[in-house]
Sequence to fold (171 residues):
Amino acid sequence: MAENKKSQDKKPAKGADKKANRRGAARLAAVQALYQMDIGGAGINDIFAEFESHWLGNEVEGDKYLPAEAAFFKDVVAGVVRDQGKLDPLIDEALSKGWPLKRIDAILRAVLRAGAYELEHRKDVPGRVVVSEYVDVAHAFVEAEETGMVNAVLDQIARQFRADEFSRAGG
Fold:
């Protein structure tokens, strides 16, 4: 009987895990797309076309990219582009004085913008999950010290947009 319960417990986790992996892949792709737009000046429609045809779930230069939740990817990228004028001052406020957003590496700007957007607009995802996911994304590109900064900035922003969620969780 205990054995049967164990196997039943594993099934939902796999489905949730698969969805989480697709969202994680979408977050990574969104950060890469935002980075490309920031440094290369590419437009959003060109970025969507490129990522859908070449990156999302495909192999590029020998690396296999996980299938991403395309709608989630598009929401984050389009949302950051739409709300950047509002997101950047929020991020600037959360950064250490003397280190405005414009002085931060482009890849970290992309991570912070995507994370801030998701914290404000994607209430379907718990705030702590958003912060953790974007710290993981940052870890793919930068050193631990910089991921700590991403954690601190997004945690501050999360407490603004999700104060009730963070006070309930005791943190």
